[in-house]
Specification:
605 residues, alpha/beta, Rossmann fold, 4 domains, 6-stranded parallel sheet, 26 helices, 18 strands, 42% helix, globular
């Protein structure tokens, strides 16, 4: 710590409160160790924060890679403090008139850094952001300029959880401020549980004012299903795989017809790695919302590097596994409800009789459900079981409705609304409760949005989504009968829980919220593309304001309504529509030439 006093004196004139807080902090988070080159390096929990050989050279190499992405007017935000080598290197090569902000979740790390080496005048050029995740997010958002994030991975690992909370807070702020109109292509699956989620996402994006192209592959389900008739499994799998490849190419052809700003695939969408790599080559942004348990469906291993952004319903292990498989951007995005579909229903007497019961369960016949549900049958309460894939479950045949036929969403909503206690048992391949309860299923949000009371098996992430006053959980199968007895007698308590959970969903957990969050996350990491559109910088009004130095463009832009988003293709289409019978001026010809070039570079097939 021999250099600490010197560095704090340099910091104090501009940041007196920060200097005082650093002085009072404990420090000693990093283990400082000499590198082979001689300069101090550091470790955290046995892992190097900087190079063990030459931290300065490593930092300069990193900075040179980052600066190529930096655009004029963007605020550079560094994640990862370490011993400040990388920050020094980036501060020395930043573009003219650019600024750097350093995120400091833990002042003890900064104290360690300030104590091991003397720091030069570049220290005076930095802005420091400290505090809670929410406070730091508010400080960053207050700059009102595009943010360009630079993550120094080794040093950022020290603050991984704090950075995740910071980004979540910042995404909420950005989502609330977003006003621009994107064009999003949503690619849905052929069939399965993620199919309705694709439709909910499409509706939510439309409600938010974005233009949506829905690539609906469910229209091909009958053809895909016909291949099940092949007796030879190898033939069936080969044909189904080739069919999926054809749909992947058809998706690319659809996108080529009207290129979107973002291609958003929902889990099990038929997009092959080859097509995804081709889209990346053509500079299309791609994202996958993987609304699946990563342990059960593992095709993500082959596609991880194909999508630029992954959004997942699990954290920790899932996110780490995807990154090891080649994914670069992985974000947590839990499930949700669609209030257009999932809402309270007033049932007729006949409907209440048909769909109602003291206790109900809706879902497929997974092994753990086949084993546990019979334990909860008793003459003390009526029980109805809805759903398919229950063949052979003889001990449940007496409560199985419609002979185990698959039920549609409307029927599902009637069951939810008619049932006194809805059981919500997450599916696993084992025989009991989930040993890895690290995701929350859609049913949790859908039941809550209906204002229905539920008992749900405890999930590790549930406390981030609902409070104990909004959701009743069970931790073991043995608790369930007692909980059912208790809550059947307490209509007022059930109503209070159901109404509180419904308020929470409508306030925070709809597909509109999720799509806002998803687009904000992409916008934060693409400040000059998605971010600029979300900020409204492509509107006719904003473009007019920015044409002061190019007044010849003003007449072209004045033809559009003030709030309308205007792109090169829009200018070109307007010029072509007005071209017959007149001579085009220089600016119009240049626009048409650029649009022609754009079309050539976006030729996908």
């Amino acid at each position: 710590m021999e250099y600490l006093q010197h560095n704090l004196e340099r910091l104090h004139p501009r940041w007196p409160a920060l200097a005082m807080a650093i002085r009072e902090s404990a420090g000693n988070v990093l283990t400082v160790t000499p590198s082979r080159e001689g300069a101090p390096s550091a470790m955290y929990q046995g892992q190097w924060v900087h190079s063990a050989y030459d931290p300065r050279t490593e930092a300069r190499s990193w900075a040179e890679q980052q600066v190529g992405e930096w655009k004029r007017g963007e605020l550079g935000v560094i994640l990862g403090v370490g011993l400040l080598y990388h920050i020094e290197a980036l501060a020395q090569v930043i573009p003219h008139d650019s600024r750097l902000v350093v995120v400091v979740p833990n002042l003890c790390v900064l104290k360690d850094a300030l104590g091991v080496r003397p720091l030069g005048p570049w220290l005076d050029t930095l802005t420091w952001v400290t505090g809670t995740a929410q406070e730091m997010a508010e400080q960053l958002a207050s700059h009102a300029t595009p943010l360009r994030f630079f993550t120094y991975g080794a040093a950022a690992r020290v603050h991984a959880e704090e950075h995740q909370r910071l980004e979540a807070s910042l995404r909420r702020i950005v989502a609330a401020q977003a006003g621009g109109r994107l064009h999003v292509a949503v690619v849905g699956p052929i069939y399965g549980g993620s199919l309705p989620i694709a439709r909910y996402a499409v509706r939510a994006l439309g409600e938010l004012g974005h233009r949506v192209t829905y690539v609906d592959h469910s229209v091909h389900h009958a053809s895909y299903q016909a291949f099940e008739n092949y007796r030879d499994e190898r033939s069936r799998l080969t044909v189904q795989s080739r069919f999926a490849d054809v749909l992947s190419l058809s998706t690319m052809a659809t996108i080529a017809e009207d290129p979107p700003d973002l291609v958003l695939a929902i889990a099990q969408a038929p997009l092959s790695l080859a097509v995804l790599q081709h889209l990346q080559k053509k500079k299309f942004l791609t994202a996958m919302w993987f609304v699946e348990n990563f342990r059960h469906l593992t095709y993500w291993q082959q596609l991880a590097a194909g999508y630029e952004y992954w959004f997942v319903i699990q954290q920790a292990e899932c996110m780490d596994a995807l990154k090891r498989a080649g994914a670069t951007q992985v974000h947590y995005l839990p499930m949700a409800a669609d209030p257009v579909v999932h809402h309270p229903i007033t049932l007729t007497g006949d409907e209440q009789q048909a769909y109602g019961a003291d206790v109900s369960f809706v879902g497929a016949g997974y092994a753990n459900r086949r084993r546990l549900l019979p334990q909860w049958l008793t003459k003390e309460w009526s029980f109805k079981l809805w759903g398919n894939e229950w063949d052979g479950a003889t001990d449940l045949s007496g409560v199985l409705q419609r002979n185990g036929a698959r039920i549609d969403t409307d029927t599902c909503m009637k069951v939810f609304n008619a049932t006194t206690i809805n059981l919500n048992l997450h599916s696993v391949s084992g025989m009991g409760l989930d040993a890895h309860p690290d995701f929350v299923n859609p049913r949790t949000f859908e039941l809550a949005a209906c204002g229905a009371f539920q008992l749900v098996d405890e999930r590790s992430l549930l406390s981030e989504l609902f409070t104990p006053e909004e959701m009743v959980c069970f931790r073991s199968p043995d608790e369930v009968p007692s909980l059912i007895r208790t809550w059947l007698k307490d209509s007022g308590g059930r109503r209070a829980y159901a109404e509180a959970a419904q308020r929470r969903v409508l306030r925070e957990h709809t597909y509109r919220h999720r799509m806002q969050d998803l687009l904000a996350a992409v916008g934060l990491h693409q400040p000059d593309r998605i971010g600029s559109i979300l900020r409204g910088e492509r509107s006719a009004t904003e473009l007019q304001r920015r044409t002061d130095s190019a007044t010849e463009l003003s007449p072209l832009l004045s033809r559009f309504p003030p709030g309308q988003r205007v792109e090169l293709k829009d200018l070109a289409a307007d010029i072509r529509a007005r071209a017959p019978g007149r001579e085009l001026n220089r600016e119009e010809l240049l626009v048409l030439m650029l649009d022609s070039y754009r079309g050539e570079t976006r030729d996908l097939l």
